[in-house]
Amino acid sequence: MRRFLPFAAAVACVLAVSACGGGGGGTAAPPTQVSDPSKVSGEVTWWDTTRPDSEGPTFQALIKEFQAKYPQVKVNYVNVPSDQAQNQFQTAAQAGSGAPDVIRSEVAWTSQFASLGYLQPLDGTRAVDKPDDFLPGPLSSTKFNGKTYAVPQVTDTLALIYNKRLLKEAGHEEPPRTIAELKQTALDVKAKTGAAGLALNVDSYFLLPFMYGEGGDLLDVANKKIVVNSPANVKAMETVADLISSGAAPKPATTESYANAMTALKEGKAAMIYNGPWALSEIYQGKEFKDKKNLGIAPVPAGSVKAAAPTGGWNLAIYAGSKNIPAAYEFVRFMTTTEAQAKIAKEISLLPTRTSAYADPDVQGNPDVAVFKPIMDTAVPRPWIPEGGQLFQPLLEGYQALVGGKSGPADMLKGVDEQYRGIMKDWS
């Protein structure tokens, strides 16, 4: 998960395949398997959503390894910004032209694309190798109506990422474990070092740890209930508002706050942020972390109920209209092997989705992965439903109104609830 910036242009199409048309083929049987996979030929266009400077080189190196093993398959690598890929794929698949053979799909997009018939079903194909080896959480995000439509590539969650030097100068040898400690630590940093204590990211995904910490959530999927406007979530929003009003967190801008928070951390202008493993390769480029030992990673601080963060990650999915399905199967299979995941974990600290990868010496030798793995074990699965991708825009707008002083916590959530009822029409 990187900066969950949901799109709005395709909202009306999400639930009505017949109205949206396009892409089709999602229910077709997979093509006959080839007898010798190494002889597969074709041309595979892959839309990658990683940061091209800090993460992209690792994935491009994997492509070279794939093409050495499959010399008759050409891979066209296209880097698409993660905040644009969802809408661009939707548009291309709807038009039936310009969609990639393989897309790196955020976990929340997979069921949506599958519901629209844009993804090739993968059960029984070579794309899915050793499914029992995948962690249950990431694997669950690849399913829709009992079928598999993607393969988990990397998984993630949020943690408290902090500057050890600044915390130590403020008198704190250990990171905060509770929201109360977070507030006090941030205030101490501000008072004793002049740096900001906590840099907030005004993105709806980053509100979830505060909600989960108070026992709140967005939906009760099992009972088809909208629960965003709950006392627990009101308390969570009051917590966020208090962090800002107290000065523990400077008032963030309502746009570009992700980039602002990252820059502040890297330059030593802020001591703490919430972020995930995908951010580490960029953070280590900052002047404060040339010595990697200065970077601290800890679970998000606990609210009154628990400490918990959302499950994120990325899957590899195949476009149902691809003309190169056999080659796409081999590409997805290769890019999700234990060896590929170990390379990714070793070089850029992205978390594997395979149990076997965590036994690899290269993975065990990465201290960042070692810290994130137990945090990942407590991550809360998000609702893997077609509407899941639509839940974040109303929450983002509410968060912006809260930060901008246009709405209080209770009114903010009331407004989000009203928008959710327009999306989840048959939910109570």
Automatic annotation (TrEMBL):
GO biological processes: maltodextrin transmembrane transport; maltose transport
Pfam families: SBP_bac_1
InterPro entries with a match to the protein in the record: SBP (IPR006059)
Keyword terms of this UniProt record: Signal, Transport
Signal sequence segment: 1-19
Gene Ontology MF, one: maltose binding
Domain of life: Bacteria
One GO cellular component term noted in the UniProt record for this chain: ATP-binding cassette (ABC) transporter complex, substrate-binding subunit-containing
PROSITE patterns named among the record's database cross-references: PROKAR_LIPOPROTEIN (PS51257)
Coiled coil spans: none
Transmembrane parts of this sequence: none
NAD listed as a keyword: no
Family label: Belongs to the bacterial solute-binding protein 1 family.
PANTHER family: MALTOSE-BINDING PERIPLASMIC PROTEIN, MALTOSE_MALTODEXTRIN-BINDING PERIPLASMIC PROTEIN
The name this protein goes by in its record: Sugar ABC transporter substrate-binding protein
Species, as recorded: [Actinomadura] parvosata subsp. kistnae
